[in-house]
Specification:
347 residues, alpha/beta, DHBP synthase, 2 domains, five-stranded parallel sheet, 9 helices, binds threonylcarbamoyladenylate, binds magnesium ion
Length: 347
Amino acid sequence: MALQTEYITVTDPASQDAELRHAADILRRGGLVVFPTETVYGLGGDATDAEAAKRIYAAKGRPSDNPLIIHLAYPEEAEAYAHTSPLYYRLAKAFMPGPLTVILPKKDTVPLSTTGGLDTVAVRCPAHPVAHRLIELLGRPIAAPSANLSGKPSPTNARHVAEDMDGRVDAILDGGESEIGLESTIVKLDGDTATLLRPGGITYDALCMVLDHVSVADAVTHRLAENERPLSPGMKYRHYAPTAPLVLLSGERERVLDFLRREQKETDCAILCYDEDVPFLDQRNLFCIGAREDLAAQAHSLFRTLRQADRANAACIYAPLPPTEGLGLALYNRMIRAAAHTVKHID
Ligand code: TXA
Ligand code: MG
């Protein structure tokens, strides 16, 4: 079923409405269009078309009980698709458009194939101007998971998208590097309770400034037991893991560097490290993730460096265990899953 994928570069959405209208027409006819967002690239289809969701699952190789986020141009448009609440509008006022997804009870206007059979729907208003204008031109929400093949890291540029999606979608819109680099924060609202299901660019502390109480789902930081039912279907799937085992290192900096230098001599390992550590390590298969204190830079480069480290065909990949404060929690959540919870403490 190979498709001829059309590549469209959109550097200035304001002056490229013709290109975006063309992309919206593809979606209107039931086709699939990959588009940039500020978090990661999305694999989009018409959220109101039950068949489009099936095509998205097929292109991604994703099980069809994993629900899709519907992307809106404006937060108020959620009224047509979900049962909103005062808490929803508090979050919308503070964080939309932006990297926040809110789960609400769904209305019948959203097909069950889009929500993986659930009676709730995830809504998000992306801030990226290309995403925003595309939704506006379609006049309907766009359902989109991250535009990677199931099991690969989320793509943060059009080159990564092409690696996974060439021949599987009708068009790919290239809007440059994703600014944040990690998927959106997901909050589930249930009456007046709020639960953080996936940490992202909007931090737990930022949510707590707007909502009185936010609980954190166990699966954000811990491995689910065999028989545990996750709050979000996505939590139960094996997330991206490199081919080589990934080991997260904790411990005092000098000790960790000693350990890494020894490993570099004795084994064929790849290393993700902070910028400050580069001068102290062998440059072979070394990938910088940003300065130690610069969590935003680390979020921005994480998926790219994981793709690079994976291509090095090393026997093992080492990376620092991220902190759990601030944006660190989102990094920790992605890394701990990519490492299948393997953490080595160096004494
Ligand atoms: O930043 C993002 O959120 C990107 C961009 C493209 O918007 N999208 C994204 O989608 O990361 P995806 O499908 O890769 O991850 C969405 C997660 C999945 O783990 C899914 O299980 C969960 O959201 N989800 C979606 N709808 C849900 C619902 N109704 N209830 C619980 N979890 C839901
Ligand atoms: Mg994804």
